Amino acid sequence: MDPMLRGQCLNNSDQIRAVHNSFARNEVFETFGRKTDKDEDAFHFVGYLPAAGHLVELDGLAEGPIDHGVVADGADWLAMAKPIIEERMNRYAGKELRFTLLAVVSDRKLVYTRRIEELQKKNESMPSDEAIEEINQLKEQIEQEKLRDKANKIENIRRKHNFLPFIVELFKVLGDSTKLSSVYEEAAKRGQERERRNKRLKTESA
Questions:
Q1: To the nearest 10°, the Cα dihedral for 132, 133, 138, 143?
Q2: Inter-residue contact 156 to 23 (CB < 8 Å)
Q3: Angle CA(93)–CA(99)–CA(101) in degrees, nearest 5?
Q4: For 89-138, what is the HEC assignment?
Q5: d(Cα 144, Cα 109) in Å, to the nearest integer?
Q6: How high is the pLDDT of residue 17?
Q7: Treating both helix axes as pointing N-terminal to C-terminal, what angle do 129-160 and 108-125 enclose, rounded to 10 degrees?
Q8: Which residues contact 104 (CB under 8 A, 6 or more apart)?
Q9: How many CA atoms lie within 13 Å of 206's alpha carbon, on the beta-carbon side?
Q10: For residue 25, which phi and psi values (nearest 5 degrees)?
Q11: Buried/exposed code over 86-117 (b: 16+ C-beta within 10 A; e: otherwise)
Q12: What is the three-class DSSP state of 49?
C-alpha cells in the first residue's frame, strides 16, 4: 500500500475520527470576521522522527517528508531535532505563543509490565533481593500511572464541558443579590495585583 492509500485509510477510519473528535474543545462562542494572513501558519501538527538513519520532518502542509540530515550512529536524534523545533518556534516570536509539544511514547504501564516479566523470569533462575525490590518499585509506578490516567480522563471531561449555563445562572444569582459589583471589583483588584507582580518579576529578572 503506497503512502497515498495509507493516508486515505487513516482519513476514512471511523475509530480514529471518533477518538480525534472526542478531544475537541467545546467552543461556546463563534468568532467571525477574523482574516487570516496568507503568510500565517495554520494550526496543525508537525512531527519529527528518525527514519532510515535520517531525521525526518512530517508536515501536513508540505508536499512530502523533509530530510534534516543523517543521524550519526549512537547519536541522540532528539538533540538534533531540538534546535530545529526551537528555530520554528522563534520564527513566530512576538506574535504567536500557542505552541504545544507532544511526545509519542509507549504506554508506561506496558513498559513497566514488560520489565516486571523480565525480572520475574530472571528471578526464577537466580533469585535476588535487588530484583524483588525493583519489581515492587515498578508495581508502585504502574499504580501511579493508573492514577494519572484517571486524573487526565477527569480533566478532559472538564475541558470539554460547556460551563456557560452555569456561569449565566451564577451571574443571575449574584445580580439578584446585589453582590455582582463587589465580586467584579474584587476580581479586578486581584487582576491588577497580579499584573503588577508580573511586571515586578520581569524587571527583577531583566
A1: 100
A2: yes
A3: 130
A4: HHCCCCCCCCCCCCCCCCCHHHHHHHHHHHHHHHHHHCCCHHHHHHHHHH
A5: 9
A6: 84
A7: 170
A8: 47
A9: 6
A10: -75, 140
A11: eeeeeeeeeeeeeeeeeeeeeeebeebeeebe
A12: strand
Q: Which amino acid is at 121?
A: K
Q: What is d(CA 180, CA 159) in angstroms, rounded to the nearest whole number?
A: 26
pTM exceeds 0.85: no
**Residue type for position 164:** L
Residue 24 DSSP symbol: -
**What pLDDT is recorded for position 89?**
83
For residues 98 and 79, what is the distance between their CA atoms, to the nearest angstrom? 23
What is the structure's pLDDT at 63? 83
Tell me how far apart the alpha carbons of residues 59 and 46 are, in angstroms, rounded to a whole number: 5
> Which residue positions in the chain have pLDDT lower than 50?
none
- Phi and psi for 57 in degrees, rounded to 5? -105, 130
Amino acid at 118: E
